[in-house]
Write a structure and sequence with these properties.
By secondary structure, this protein is α+β, with helices and mostly antiparallel strands. It has one domain. Helices cover 36% and strands 28% of the residues. The chain contains 3 helices and 5 strands, in the order αβαββββα.
Length: 109
């Protein structure tokens, strides 16, 4: 019974890792990148760094907060596309509460 339960858990983990499709946004227009994310909910975009030649960059981009993990929020990000260098998209990230706290402390001093 434990073996079956373990196998089921591993299958679910593997399925979750394969759920997001991978795309190269530099081969798509900005509108197509945004439409793909909207249609699929979450995708992996992979492209080459403009600052460091040969360095691949990638991240998971999402349509809405419901594709983020608990404790994460949707934040704006930009990726290169075939027709622009800064196509607006969204990523999931943990909020930086400490940064806002420090800013309030500095204003009061």
């Amino acid at each position: 019974m434990k073996t079956i339960l373990l196998a089921a858990c591993l299958t679910l983990v593997a399925a979750g890792a394969q759920a997001a499709s991978r795309y190269d946004p530099t081969r798509m227009s900005c509108g197509k990148v945004q439409a793909t994310i909207a249609r699929q909910g979450a995708v992996i975009l992979r492209y080459q760094s403009a600052r460091v030649p040969g360095l691949p960059l990638y991240n998971r981009y999402v349509q809405s907060d419901r594709f983020c993990d608990i404790g994460e929020i949707r934040a704006r990000a930009y990726v290169p596309s075939a027709d622009t260098k800064s196509c607006p998209v969204y990523i999931c990230k943990r909020p930086d509460f400490d940064r806002h706290f420090r800013r309030r402390i500095l204003k009061h001093n």
